[in-house]
Amino acid sequence: MQHRKKNIGFALFDVLTLGIPLYIRYLYKKPKQTLIISSIVFPIILIFLFLILP
Predict the structure, then answer these.
(1) In terms of Cα–Cα distance, which of 13, 34, 17 is closest to 25?
(2) Are 26 and 34 in contact, with CB atoms under 8 Å apart?
(3) CA separation for the pair 51, 44 (Å, rounded)
(4) Residue 45 and residue 40: Cα distance in Å, rounded?
(5) So what's the pLDDT on residue 23?
(6) pTM score, two decimals?
(7) Crossing angle of the two packed helices 20-29 and 31-52, in degrees rounded to 10
(8) CA atoms in the 13 A half-sphere facing the CB of 21
(9) Distances, alpha carbon 35 to alpha carbons 9, 24, 30, 43, 49, in Å
(10) Based on CB atoms within 10 Å of each CB, which residue in 25, 34, 49, 53 is the most buried?
(11) How many CB atoms lie within 10 A of CB 18?
């Protein structure tokens, strides 16, 4: 049960900070894989926001 509470706290922190600390950690630990995934995900998010926002 204690492990679950720790994960909930970490998940809330990640949501409140928009995932930036976690992104920076993975960018430091696995830079090549993180950049590859980012180059795919970020344009999709930008296109989605461009279509949704007036």
Answers:
(1) 34
(2) yes
(3) 11
(4) 9
(5) 86
(6) 0.61
(7) 150
(8) 8
(9) 27, 11, 9, 12, 21
(10) 34
(11) 9
Q: Which residue has the tokens 């830079």?
A: 31
Q: Dig out the tokens for 24 from the structure.
A: 């920076």
Residue 26 CA to residue 2 CA, distance in Å, equals: 25
Measured over all CA atoms, what is the biggest interatomic distance in the chain, rounded to whole angstroms?
A: 45
Q: Compute and round to an integer the Cα radius of gyration of the chain.
A: 15
Q: φ, ψ for residue 35 (rounded to 5)?
A: -70, -35
Q: How many CA atoms lie within 13 A of 25 on its CB side?
A: 5
Q: What is the mean pLDDT of residues 1-17?
A: 79
